[in-house]
Design a protein that fits this description.
The chain has 161 residues and is an alpha+beta fold. It is built from five helices and seven strands.
Length: 161
């Protein structure tokens, strides 16, 4: 037991320096997409046709990517000859509204923390509690995902109990 404690003390802490430093995500991590419609050639729709979920579209305006439909498969980046669609390593993807999931430029519209009315109602933090009554564990898996680095709800003042 003493050797285990010595080894553990020698290892030091293993947490990331986030938000002050890098998150330490793997090199292959695909984060927030960036769309640069100015790079699109006239009449080019190679990336739109390559998207398996129809997340890319042009409509009446510029090229737009719907992160609510995107699988982050990078088929669009491989098909686009001009490089108008790219995936960054930025893990911050939370949005406050459905419209904020539509990406048509390099600008980021991230979710904000609880507003004054929510803070008045819930106090300093909102606690999320889930009770399983014999389900298939799908709900539990989704709630666990809400605590990971991509969907981190604790940054909005929501705690899991």
């Amino acid at each position: 037991m003493l050797n285990i404690l010595k080894n553990r003390l020698a290892q030091g802490h293993r947490t990331s320096a986030f938000p002050e430093g890098e998150t330490g995500l793997p090199e292959r991590f695909r984060g927030r997409p960036v769309v640069r419609p100015e790079l699109c050639g006239e009449g080019c729709s190679a990336c739109i046709e390559a998207c398996p979920t129809g997340a890319l579209g042009r409509g009446a305006g510029p090229l737009t990517l719907d992160m609510g439909r995107c699988l982050f498969c990078t088929e669009c980046t491989a098909a686009c000859p001009a490089g108008a669609v790219a995936f960054t390593r930025d893990h911050r993807l939370a949005a406050s509204s459905r419209g904020d999931l539509l990406v048509s430029s390099a600008e980021v519209r991230l979710a904000r923390s609880l507003d004054a009315e929510a803070r008045r109602l819930f106090g300093r933090s909102l606690k999320l509690r889930q009770v399983s009554a014999g389900g298939c564990n799908a709900c539990e898996a989704e709630l666990v995902a809400l605590g990971n680095v991509v969907f981190d709800l604790s940054r909005f003042g929501i705690q899991f109990v």
